[in-house]
Structures are given as C-alpha cells and as structure tokens.
UniProtKB/TrEMBL annotation:
Keyword line: Glycoprotein, Glycosyltransferase, Membrane, Signal-anchor, Transferase, Transmembrane, Transmembrane helix
Transmembrane segments: 12-33
Subcellular location(s) per record: Membrane
PANTHER family, A to Z: GLYCOSYLTRANSFERASE 14 FAMILY MEMBER, PROTEIN XYLOSYLTRANSFERASE
UniProt source species: Tigriopus californicus (Marine copepod)
Name of the protein this chain belongs to: Protein xylosyltransferase
Family: Belongs to the glycosyltransferase 14 family.
Organism domain of life: Eukaryota
GO terms for cellular component: membrane
Pathway membership, UniProt: Protein modification; protein glycosylation
Gene Ontology MF terms in the entry: acetylglucosaminyltransferase activity
InterPro entries: Glyco_trans_14
Length: 454
C-alpha cells in the first residue's frame, strides 16, 4: 500500500510551502494588474517571478498563471476594460518626473493585439507630450475597432490636450502588400497635418514594445540633433531584387495558402491571401534610383516627412513601388540616399554610412540569423514568449534598440507583461542609464531562479 500523506505532510514540505506562497503571490499580482496602476511592490514581485518562468516553464503554476493572464490581458479582457478607463490605463511614466524631453509622434499600424497596444501606450504616453496615430486594419472586427476608439478616449480624458488620432478611413492591410506602407503613410500624413509640434515621427507596429524606458528613448533622439534615422544598405542576394523586378499581385482567393504559421505548439496553417509574382516585368525605377534595403521602422524629422508626402520624386517613386513585394523595406531606404540639386538633378549618395551604425530603431529575431526562438516564427520573425526574454535582455545589454518586434499576447499573454516589467524596473536606474545608456540593463537574472526541486 502507498504511504498516506497528511495535510501537514504536503503543506509543510519545502515544495508545498513554496507552491502555497507562490499561489498567494500570483493571486495578488493578477488582482493588482486587473484593477489599476501597478504598485511598486507588486512590480517587484513580477520582476522576481517572471525570470522564474523563463528558467522553468514546466512548473504547474505556470499554466494556471497563463490562464489567469488570458482572463486579464486577452483581447476580450481589454475590450471590457475599455469601458472603464481607470482599469485600462496603467502608465509607467510620470510626466512631472521628466518635464523636459523631445516631442515625438508615433505612427502605429495595428491589426488585432489589443493587450499589446494597451501595454505599448502605457509605456509611451507621457502626459500630452507625444502624438499618436493608430491605423486599425480595416479587416479588424468592429468590436476591436470600437475598443481602440474607446482606448484613445480614455487617454484623452486622462491627459487633456494629448493628440491621439484613430482614422476612420483605414484600409485592409496584408503582409507583403503595398497596403502596409499605405497605412503607415496615412498616419504619417495625419500626424504631419495635426497641430502637435513634434520633432520626430517613428513608424512602429502594434506588436512592438519599447526596449528602454521612454526617457532614454527621448534622450537618444534628442542627441540626433535633428537628423533622421533611416536604415539603408545595398542588398545582397537575388531574392530582394525579385521583389521589384516583376509586378506582384495580391491573391485574395480563400483557397490559397500563405506561408505556414509555425507557432510552437501550434496553430494549423491558416488560409490567407498571399502575394504572387506575375510575368509582367516592371519598368526601371523613376529618376534612375537604385533600390536599397532597409526596414519599415524609421525615425523621420519633419523635413523628411514633408519630402516623402509632397515632393514629386518621392511621389513618383511611391507609385512605382505600389505593385512590388514588401515595398516598405525599400521605400524609405531608397529615398534616404536621394540628393536633389537646385537644377532638379536627382542622384543618390550610395557611399553614405548606414544609419544603423548610429541607432537601430528595431530589433527582431530572424529565423536562421538570430538566437533561438521559443515562441515560433511567422514570416521568418520570432514571436517572443517568456522564454525569449533572457535573450532579449542580453541582446539589448550592449546596444540600444529602441523597439522589439514582435509580441503577440494571443500566443503568450505573459511575454508583453514580463517585458514591460523589465523595462519598468530600469526606471530606478535612470540617472546611471543616461550616462551609460548603450550598456543596457544591469539586472542579473541568475540569482532569480526559483528551485522547485527543493
């Protein structure tokens, strides 16, 4: 017969006590996260707990925690919170603590991740200093779109005078298609036409989170002295040139498959529209421009924004790019090297250094080129989960990346919260970080591992 174990035999064992204490801690954390601003002591608890998840994802409590997190940070939960502004907004920035800073504008291309968007805004909003335009994918469900409008209204009520634009005339956005660049430009134009006196505009996705506290991000941009940052380099390999050699078309047939959705543990491949290459050869680029490779994430001063939207060279080039594949990776990068002289002679400075040598707007883990990805890849980009957080901390320790892409709470609701917690923990180090910002976090996670075998 098996040995019978009494209540004390369970509760008084080291593992039982630890599990009991951890359960209470998680309950307090979840309740605090669902009710309003996160108290400092609760934030510290999260900081201590999140690393334990990264080290041991098989602990029984993790699954219960994830279930609770889904209840508090899922799209459905954010939809409910959008009716109660006090429970929705949990900003980490205190406008009175950092009164000086460079005013920024953020063009956000949003699809469906309400909880990541809410976390993103909590990390970026600092009173009414910055301006935001959120382009909601026209394919998003009405309840998602309405929630974004309510979310924007909550911030307007909390910070009178803040500029948050949520356009109604949005477009359906598809991966690889011109629509992604269009949506970004739509918000860029709205921000340019707004009354907000921003100095830089940043293009980000609704699945990206800041890698550093807002004050460091502001100080990095202030040090640019008005210069735009547009990653731009000569591409290598034939695959990039194939995107612009022929006309590409969006295939909307419901029976076609896009690339498999390789999410760990995963979803079945989804039927999605995809881009197909036609046999039509494109004419050469206007003004004899050489197509260069960059990224959608750019940091633009007002002069560059005006050039992109109003100058004939930029408008001609945009029209030419409209039937290309992934045009956002070539549009900004190519225009960044354009030089126009008084006689309207157009050329490019192909010898200029890549702006990424100065500042990198975004970090992503690419399949086959980066650290291991525990969250799985979609379109060759890692979807971070909690096990990826230590690699993100290491990657940002010696070089400043302003944003990390990408987080999807539908895949792992803990990852965005744990990353927010890590960035928030750095706020106490701000005086030191301003002088040694590129060195990144000084946190050591090695002593935070909880041993569940004792």
């Amino acid at each position: 017969m098996g040995r019978r174990v009494g209540l004390c035999g369970i509760m008084c064992s080291p593992r039982g006590v630890l599990g009991w204490l951890l359960g209470i801690t998680l309950t307090l954390v979840i309740l605090s996260l669902s009710k309003g601003p996160i108290p400092m002591e609760v934030g510290l608890v999260i900081n201590r707990f999140c690393p334990s998840l990264w080290h041991d994802m098989k602990v029984r409590n993790v699954f219960a925690l994830k279930k609770q997190m889904e209840m508090n940070f899922s799209n459905q939960a954010i939809i409910k919170k959008s009716y109660n502004c006090s429970s929705l907004i949990n900003p980490i920035n205190d406008p009175s603590a950092i009164p000086e800073g460079v005013p920024l504008a953020f063009s956000i291309v949003f699809h469906r991740e309400l909880s990541v968007l809410a976390t993103q805004l909590d990390m970026l909003v600092n009173g009414a200093r910055h301006a935001f335009c959120i382009h909601v994918d026209a394919k998003a469900k009405p309840i998602i779109r309405d929630s974004v409008h309510r979310m924007a209204n909550c911030y307007r009520q909390r910070y009178p005078g803040i500029t948050i634009i949520v356009p109604n005339d949005t477009i359906p956005v598809y991966w690889g298609h011109f629509s992604l660049l269009q949506s970004d430009l739509l918000c860029g134009r709205r921000l340019y036409d707004s009354d907000h006196d921003w100095q830089y505009m940043m293009s980000i996705a609704g699945t990206e989170l800041p890698s550093v506290p807002l004050s460091i991000l502001e100080s990095k941009l202030l040090s640019l002295n008005g210069r735009s940052i547009i990653p731009s380099a000569t591409p290598s390999g034939p695959h990039f040139h194939e995107r612009f050699s022929h006309v590409w078309e969006l295939d909307l047939k419901p029976t076609t498959y896009s690339r498999p959705n390789r999410i760990s543990g995963g979803d079945d491949p989804k039927r999605q529209p995809k881009m197909t290459q036609s046999k039509i050869v494109k004419i050469p680029p206007p003004h004899n421009l050489v197509i260069l490779k960059g990224m959608r994430n750019v940091i633009l001063n007002r002069t560059m924004v005006a050039f992109i939207h109003f100058h004939p060279v930029a408008k001609n080039f945009l029209q030419w790019m409209s039937n290309s594949m992934i045009p956002e990776e070539g549009f900004y990068a190519t225009l960044a090297r354009v030089r126009i002289y008084q006689d309207e002679f157009v050329t490019q400075d192909l010898e200029a250094p890549n702006d990424e040598e100065i500042l990198v707007p975004r970090l992503a883990f690419w399949e086959g080129h980066s650290d291991p990805c525990f969250g799985g890849y979609v379109h060759d980009v890692c979807n971070f989960n909690t096990q990826d957080i230590p690699n993100l901390v290491n990657a940002t320790q010696f070089q400043t990346f302003l944003f990390l892409n990408k987080f999807e709470a539908t895949k792992d609701p803990l990852a965005p919260i744990c990353w927010r917690s890590h960035v928030e923990s750095r706020l106490s180090l701000i005086p030191e970080l301003h002088s040694t910002a590129v060195k990144g976090s000084s946190l050591d996670f090695s002593d935070m591992k909880i041993n569940y075998n004792t």
